[in-house]
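#struct-help
A.M.: can someone run this one for me? Single chain, 440 residues.
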Amino acid sequence: MATSALANITRIPELRRRMLFTLGMLAVYRVGVFVTVPGADRKAMQEFIGQDSSGSLLNLLNLFSGGALEQVSIFALGVMPYVSASIILQLLTSVFKPLEELRKEGEMGQRKINQYTRYATVVLALVQGFSISLYLENRQTADGVQVVMDKGWLFRALAMLTLATGTAFIMWLGEQITERGIGNGISMIIFAGIVADFPSNLGQTWQFTSTGQIQPTSLLIAGVMIVASVMAIVFFERGQRRIPIEYSRRIIGRKMYGGQRTHLPLRVNSSGVIPPIFASTMLALPATLAGLHVPGMDVLRDHLGRGDWMYSTIFVLLTVFFCYFYTAVTFPPVDVADNLKKQGAFIPNIRPGKPTADYIEKVLTRITFGGALYVALICILPDFLRQYLKIPFQFGGTSIMIVVGVALDTANQIESYLISRHYEGFAGPGGPRIQGRRAA
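D.P.: on it. Structure tokens below:
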């Protein structure tokens, strides 16, 4: 059935154009990765990144930029400034009254918030670009080759300008993909950056297996664990707790309105991949600060080695904390209860108002605990593969979650186009709909 569904994609002109446009924009992004910032030595940076195995913030940024940082590319910052700006604005809408009122204005308010997000992205890109320029000026390879030969304010100004421009261009590409292509544009760009390194890492793993550095048994166990992880991600990302909702009956004239039954979907993992990104960033700070010769950070870095039991324990605790924190900020039960009350809806056997908010919070707290443990375990699995099975698995669990989640979202959107044009979906006639991470 999936084969026939893929064949039907080419029969819908609009869907075909959207997919070709998406592939074209992603190709432009990948070409731009190899455009180097003026004044930087790409080969020296590649060698430095290769010899830095401390799990610093530099490595994390390089992963999410699709290897653009090791190319000293104009796209080195990737979409991280945009993601950071979006998170900041999202958090501010919960504590800053004017932004909260804007969010409640509907589509017009959301457009204004998106505009503020773009401005914040450029500001963050300029600040991060300046920080990276200072960092690059003090980097050199083991042979003493400097990453930046002509140091000074000219290089810093050029780096700030080119990196901020690159980020703004990526942001524009993402918006174009969202509007005229398939899937969420920013997510697709992150997806493309992650999967771009899949072939080289698979080739490296095969080479190590051929030379005997990796045992076939270990490779088989790793393969089974990865497949099981993907299945678990699909299961949990589609998992929902559906709270029944009923609408009060109202008689207007001679007609009766309401009385309908529906449900309020609560996702098992409401926070997505934001908590592990926060946790990884915080744990990578000591290694980054140690590289900048901040006193005391080298000792902390040695005690927080990636794959160590202390690192894994702190990572799990931070991930669970951020799952609860981010869920509480983005899904306030009080607001949900107020909206239900305004719409004349209620949960059976639960009084409207505060009792409804308490009930939703109770259910959300329980399912978030399971979702937080799932996210933490998936994200520390690659460390287990590297440390105990001696497999050089370069991708973290966060990357796997992003890849699988974006694939689900894209497949869901494609299937919607197919079904709306009276074609069979991926599950065949009468089969269940594919649900992405945002399915309601």
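A.M.: thanks! The first helix runs from residue 2 to 9.
D.P.: also worth noting: The beta strands are 240-247, 250-252, 255-257, 261-267, 345-346.
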